[in-house]
Amino acid sequence: MLELYYWPTPNGHKIAIFLEEAGLEYRIFPVDIRAGDQFKPDFLKISPNNRMPAIVDPNPTDGGEPISIFESGAILLYLAEKTGSFLPQDARGRKTVMEWLFWQVGGLGPMAGQNHHFVQYAPEQIPYAITRYVNETHRLYGVLDKQLQGRDYLAGDYSIADMACYPWIVPHEKQRQNLEEFPNLQRWFNAIKERPAVIAAYERAKDYR
User: Fold this and answer.
1) What domains sit in the chain, N to C, each tagged with a CATH number?
2) What value does the mean pLDDT take over residues 165-174?
């Protein structure tokens, strides 16, 4: 059974969604980032950057010792390759999924994360920072909206790219974004929200809020 080191943040949700979609058995090991669990020595052995999520796979495909993986994008790619799911086998399809996966981990996630910090958590309101990150989040939503024009999902078929991006759109109101401005994104968001595996992943999250 896979071990998922998890807290219900957007990056944590990504991995839970994949595991539910793929029907894999997993056990959650909560990493309470409010209590500083991410800095505990045992966790740092598998996630040296003191960030969750991370996983431990007791049955890697090479048949060797259990393997640990940190960084949510790397975890999604590892699981997709292991299961042969949600990642196209053809070069062009794979290329597109990888582009949007890396776009999320390098752009949408960091910028929306700064948005969350300065809008919700910073000890003082800094108008310049709030405006910068709210505007950049808005721009990135526009990029998604354009990509989704004429497509059901980011790379055509549902993939790890969609799983990576969706949890960062869930808190759109807290990011001061209006999905009605982005009709293609809104359609995609509503479709993913209704997927049984996504519903199940967010239900699991309720135990850790």
Assistant:
1) 2-86+197-208 (3.40.30.10), 91-195 (1.20.1050.10)
2) 98
